[in-house]
Design goal:
Helix content is 32%, strand content 28%. It folds into 2 domains: 2-159 and 334-343, 3-Layer(aba) Sandwich (Aminopeptidase); 166-311, Gcn5-related N-acetyltransferase (GNAT) (Aminopeptidase, 3-Layer(aba) Sandwich). The protein is built from 11 helices and 13 strands. The protein has helices spanning 17-23, 32-40, 112-127, 141-147, 170-175, 179-194, 211-225, 238-244, 285-288, 294-309, 321-326, and strands spanning 2-6, 46-53, 56-66, 86-90, 101-103, 131-139, 153-164, 199-204, 250-256, 262-269, 276-282, 313-318, 330-340. The chain has 346 residues and is an alpha+beta fold. The model has no long low-confidence stretch (mean pLDDT 92). Strands 1, 2, 3, 4, 5, 6, 7, 12 and 13 form a 9-stranded mixed beta sheet that branches. Strands 8-9-10-11 form a 4-stranded antiparallel beta sheet, with helices on both faces. The protein is globular. This is BioF2-like acetyltransferase domain-containing protein. It comes from Amycolatopsis bullii. Residues 180-324 form the BioF2-like acetyltransferase domain.
């Protein structure tokens, strides 16, 4: 087993990455160009590690190199090692509810714990003596078992919400909801459709949406609701979103007034098995003046997409789980695991 580390800001994609992306059925945010755009705007930039066996990629990892809050606001330049203590997080920004490690199809589950230990030893050599340890985020129960061991800490984390596709249409889904919620969703759907002052558009590869406007809306939305505890991500940049929403495998839903002012936006990652609701942001209701219930409307449209796509499930990420359960989503258990430096690779 051999490990390579790539800085997507400046390094070319690993040889074979495009084929690995396709055969492993990765979500759009694993695209190497997007990873580079994300890393350029991040205070804690990511590296991409690949494990090779006989030259073939058998696993890929997104590794955030994190710096203490007392460190400078911006990330170190590519190619430079930090002189301050750092830690690494195996985590993919903006793919909530999924781990930051993916395996090639057919890679044996029984070999995964050994691969992780080899990865930790390689990462320790790559990042140097300042590395304090590794944190694995958003991992499932099986993967948590691979990370467990003496001196390591594994704890339950906030669950993710998933809707299993048992429906032929959105109406089939609505019929499974409590009567009050079902009536409310249908009423909102009708009001939004009949509102002449609300322009609703959705679809893949949107070239009519300004990435800078979306970035500003997302930033203001996150500031209004506060940063999640222990969140090491940086708000997505305009450059990242500009490229992101133009991808054919990213669906962007926008709500705007007749002048074109963006009132709310929602992005959805297309995937044959598990489409994912991703960025949601909206102006406060008193600023947009209309369009109450847009958040719920976005879920109706996402379920419609899932059923038409014939996907196995729809993932809605973490947070607001009680509200999502009212819409039929069920929690899926996740864990976090920490391996401090003294036990890395052991």
């Amino acid at each position: 087993m051999r490990f390579e580390f790539h800085d997507p800001r400046v390094d070319p994609a690993p040889a074979g990455w495009t084929e690995f992306f396709r055969t492993a059925r990765l979500h759009p945010v694993w695209d190497y160009e997007l990873l580079g755009l994300e890393a350029w705007g991040a205070r804690n930039p990511q590296r991409i590690a690949v494990a090779r066996d006989g030259g073939e990629i058998v696993a890929g990892l997104s590794v955030l190199v994190c710096h203490p809050r007392l460190a400078p606001r911006f990330a170190p330049a590519p190619g430079r090692r930090s002189l301050r203590p750092i830690w690494a997080e195996v985590f993919l920004p903006w793919l909530s509810g999924y781990p930051g490690i993916v395996f090639a199809p057919g890679f044996p589950a029984g070999d995964r714990a050994a691969l992780l230990r080899e990865f930790e030893r390689a990462l320790r050599r790559h990042l140097g003596p300042g590395l304090l340890g590794v944190l694995y985020r958003a991992i499932d129960e099986e993967f948590a078992g691979h990370t467990a061991g003496l001196g390591r800490l594994v704890r339950p984390a906030q669950s993710t919400a998933v809707l299993e596709n048992r429906f032929q249409s959105e109406e089939d889904w609505l019929k499974t909801l409590p009567s009050a919620r079902r009536s409310s969703l249908r009423r909102r759907r009708r009001r939004i459709a009949e509102d002449p002052e609300l322009v609703v558009r959705g679809g893949p590869g949107r070239d009519d949406v300004d990435g800078a406007e979306v970035a500003a809306l997302v930033k203001a939305h996150r500031e209004r609701y506060g940063k999640l505890p222990l969140d090491t991500r940086t708000v997505p940049s305009a450059g990242f979103l500009h490229r992101f929403i133009r991808r054919p495998d990213v669906h962007t839903l926008t709500y705007a007034d007749p002048s074109g002012r963006l009132l709310a936006v929602n992005t959805l990652l297309d995937h044959p098995d598990s489409p994912c609701l991703q960025h949601w942001a909206a102006l406060p209701l008193d600023e947009r003046g209309r369009g109450s219930g847009l958040y719920f409307d976005s879920y109706v449209r996402a379920v419609r997409f899932m059923t038409q796509r014939g996907a196995k499930e729809l993932s809605a990420g973490r947070g607001m789980n009680e509200l999502k359960e009212e819409l039929g989503f069920l929690p899926r258990k996740l864990y976090a695991a920490a391996a401090p430096r003294p036990v890395l690779g052991r």
